[in-house]
Amino acid sequence: MNLRIALFGITKEIVGQSQLELTAPEGQSVEQLMQQLQSTYPGLRQLTSFAVAVNNEYAATDYRLHERDEIALIPPVSGG
Amino acid sequence: MLIELTDQPIDVAAALAAVQADGAGAVNAFIGTVRNQSTGRSVVRLEYEAYDSMAVHQMRKVAEQAQERWPMLQQIAVIHRKGTLYIGDVAVIVAVSTPHRAESFAACQYIIDTIKQVVTIWKKEFYEDGQVWVAAHP
């Protein structure tokens, strides 16, 4: 399946673009996606925290992704 | 409930007016502003970047959690700014109204503290000699 991933803040700088498109096996979990991204972009390992959001909610690491999911990488937030 | 993410200057008076309620004897507001220094460095300006749809969704969720926790809450307003901000600019306002003051203080603090933990907004500080994404690195 094809996944489209939105990037913000420092993750956008680490990856060098604001959106990633990648092909992943059906049923890929959030954790597997995070591991894949961290090995491709080691800078992601240096962050204080690193989460994935699916459809505007923080996703559990065992959540299995679907092609239509709106996926985003969430580096440490700093609003307020 | 007024929940907003905006690239325009925040109208504090309008936010306070939005939480006026006949049943409220207390209005409490937290106003977050841009200060001129951070960890010993002189800040020139800030840039807030947001994942808009999730940020608004999470701000609403936090306000709803406060409403559940303090059912006497009358009105809630949460407005967060994004884009480029300079020293003294208002970055965020949280305003609540309740019958009595204790719940007003507590709910207001809960909302701003939780927003800072979960809402998808990122702050980049610009100094005279560099720039840093706040809280990104240990």
From TrEMBL, chain A:
One of its GO terms (biological process) is Mo-molybdopterin cofactor biosynthetic process. GO terms for molecular function: nucleotide binding. Keywords: Nucleotide-binding. Signal peptide: none annotated. It holds the Pfam family ThiS. GO terms for cellular component: molybdopterin adenylyltransferase complex. InterPro entries: Beta-grasp_dom_sf (IPR012675), MOCS2A (IPR044672), Mopterin_synth/thiamin_S_b (IPR016155), ThiS/MoaD-like (IPR003749). Gene3D superfamilies: 3.10.20.30. Belongs to the MoaD family. This is Molybdopterin synthase sulfur carrier subunit. It comes from Hymenobacter jejuensis.
TrEMBL record, chain B:
The keyword Cell inner membrane does not apply. Keywords: Molybdenum cofactor biosynthesis. Its EC number is 2.8.1.12. It catalyses: 2 [molybdopterin-synthase sulfur-carrier protein]-C-terminal-Gly-aminoethanethioate + cyclic pyranopterin phosphate + H2O = molybdopterin + 2 [molybdopterin-synthase sulfur-carrier protein]-C-terminal Gly-Gly + 2 H(+). GO terms for molecular function: molybdopterin synthase activity. It is an enzyme of class 2 (transferase). The keyword Ribonucleoprotein does not apply. GO terms for biological process: Mo-molybdopterin cofactor biosynthetic process. Pathway: Cofactor biosynthesis; molybdopterin biosynthesis. Belongs to the MoaE family. Heterotetramer of 2 MoaD subunits and 2 MoaE subunits. Also stable as homodimer. The enzyme changes between these two forms during catalysis. This is Molybdopterin synthase catalytic subunit. It comes from Hymenobacter jejuensis.
